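Protocol check, entry for the methods section draft. Step 1: assemble the input record (protein sequence plus ligand SMILES). Step 2: submit for complex structure prediction. Step 3: store the structure tokens unaltered in the notebook. Ligand used here: pyridoxal-5'-phosphate. Step 1 record:
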Amino acid sequence: MPGSQLKVSKRRAPRAGGGWADFLDLAIDHDSEIPLLQQVCQQLRQAIVSRSLLPGSRLPSSRRLADRLGVSRTSVLSAYDQLLTEGYVEGRAGSGTYVTDDVPEQLISAILPRPVAEKAGSLRLSAAGKRFRSLAQGLEPFEDIPFRAGCCSVDAITIENWRRACSRQLRSLERVHLRYSDPIGVLSLRREVAQYLKAARAVRCDPEQVVILSGAQQALDLSVRSLIDPGDAVWVEDPGYMGARFALRAAGADLIPVPVDQDGLDVGAGLQRCRNARAAYVTPSHQFPTGAVMSMRRRLELLSWAKENDAWIIEDDYDSEFRYVGRPLASLQGIDQCSRVIYIGTLSKMLFPGIRLGFAVVPKELIEVFTGAKFTTDRQPPTLQQAMVADFMRFGFLTSHIRRMRTRYREARDVVVESVTRFLGDLIDVEVPECGMQLAVHFKHGISDLKVAEAALSHGISVRPISPLYLDSPARQGLLLGYSGFDSRKLQFASQRLAEVVKSIL
Ligand SMILES: Cc1ncc(COP(=O)(O)O)c(C=O)c1O
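Step 3, stored output:
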């Protein structure tokens, strides 16, 4: 029986085709830097999603496969264990390990290789095209496993309410749902978003300033392309969010790393490094990745710098809805007297990422700019989907979802804090966040976060190393642990496994 935590199903015997796994052409490279178990795992995964191994196929016994590949049985058992955790295979009592009948679609699309263009090296590309290609080469498949950041919980109430909102719109399907509409979003949704932001985030806006976009990433991209010329200097938090840097680099911006401390971006350091930067990108409510909340003094300093230098501030308010202590600080936009702030928010965190909608609130004089930018990029957001979200918000379902998830995410945060402290307390410092969906732990001793992340993945755990998020400041070794998408049992189990991984590396 492969692995200790095999989920045993009492389902029927294997279907025809069960023995084909024995004929699979698996090749192990003993000189590769990729651990053996990961090589086995990757190739089996590939075989499953490409349907070389059909649902119901029985995998070879661990002993037979180990002999065939010339690897240890433990490597094969761990690979099976990992595939089991990911949902590709299942154990059947007394019978063996089988490819599951229903490998979820998203696992398949996450893993299928992107087609590699022939002669990719000699392709004539623009500078931006080359950056896009290298970004894509570094992208990891999205795996819904602890502690993957960006996973959300959605309970039965929200599912039901979302179904209702969707079916109401589908039942009333009218021409207005089917035709082209305003590039910056339908008015019904912009009204709902404006109302929500005024109440919850003290954002000062009229619906006409709300631009509906396909997520915060598009808001970042369009802001940068509209406000920054190639070569313009832009302050970025150090450490900071990669997605913003991708957008800035694609636009040819000159990134000026500004250190972050417990009060957020160090405005004084920014002034010293480049007083006349064109813009600053900040996450003031919950700094990514440190979790710091920007102090009021720093907020005022930043706004006054922007005013004096005619600079823009891009405020990424990505997950501040989930605040666990006290009242949230008002948004930076809410205290800006000079229309220097572009405020960005996203339904990816407020609701779920598959919805792929976010928004920006822009100063009135930028409305036309964003209308043109959105039109050029993809004409408009999907009309029907916007109507569904507007309906969902109008009935108060979004606020009640946020309220329930706030409780759930706080509990999840506490579980992770408790269990990583229990299993790893002597090796890490845990930063307990007051809001958000992830927390940072930093290693006390010289442990490489990259090594831990790589080893953890081969044990079915996804952690984001923090050191690559630094540009210039001395990099701290640590991990970002997302907790919002997983139940307590999974989080406890993953914490224990993570501790084993870290200790094995030590
Ligand atoms: C700091 C930060 N900003 C923006 C985003 C992007 O959100 P979206 O899915 O809306 O593009 C993320 C996603 O993880 C994030 O962590």
